[in-house]
Each structure stands twice: as structure tokens, then as C-alpha cells.
Here is the input.
Amino acid sequence: MYIVLDTCALVAAMRSRRGASQQLLRRLPSPRFTPALSVALYVEWQAVLTRPEHLPPGMTAAQMQSFLRYLASIAHLQDVHYLWRPFLRDPDDDMVLECAVASGSRYIVTHNVKDFRRSDQLGLKALTPADFLQLPEISP
Here is the structure.
């Protein structure tokens, strides 16, 4: 099953080693789910996660780039041929939604669930990392 990881979930994973976002990343690669990734979403990941305020202590921007390349290497690279804009309030959220729709993902994993309220109209469910990890098809 494909899922899309919103940038905020990755930021949360970098801030806390104990949180659900970090637990989700530690499960990758997984036989139960695969992140779907578009070029636009990858560029956002890079722009946000290499900011000094988002780097974990002791990690350099170059190390973060290496980590993001690893995530990209295990992700399903999805071309987006149809834009759903404007569908959500935030254009950056539309980019996440477009990747999810194009890849046939079932879930958008985000800490900003309310920002993706309308995603259910397109057959997607927005879940927090903790809620995603509790799904029967994900839980061991």
C-alpha cells in the first residue's frame, strides 16, 4: 500500500526520537507500506528539513540530504500529470494531495489532519503518524 508522508511528519521525526513519526520512519522499508513521492514533494522535504532549526543536534545539512536520498530510494516515485489546485487551503498541501491521488495512496500521514479535511472526497484519509501506526494492516 502506498502512503504519502507530509513534510511535517518528517520534521516531527527529526525533533523526537520517541514519537510516532520517528517510529514510522524506523519501520522503513516495510512490506506493509511504501511512501509515494513526487519531485515537488521531495524538493519541499529538502528545503524544509535542511533548515538549521530542523536539523537534529549534530546533524549537518549534507547528512540530512543523504537521509532524504535514502528515503527517496525506497519510495515509489510518482509522476503527477493532473493538478487538483486549488483544492485545499494551502498550495503546499495541494502538492501532497496530488501525489497521493496520482499514486493511488490510501493515506496521507500528517500532523495537520484538519488541513486535509476535503481529501476524503478523493478517497484518501489523512491520519496522524500515531493513528496510522495503529491501523490493523500496519500493526504487527
Notes: The CA atoms of residues 116 and 131 lie 15 Å apart. The longest strand covers residues 2-5.
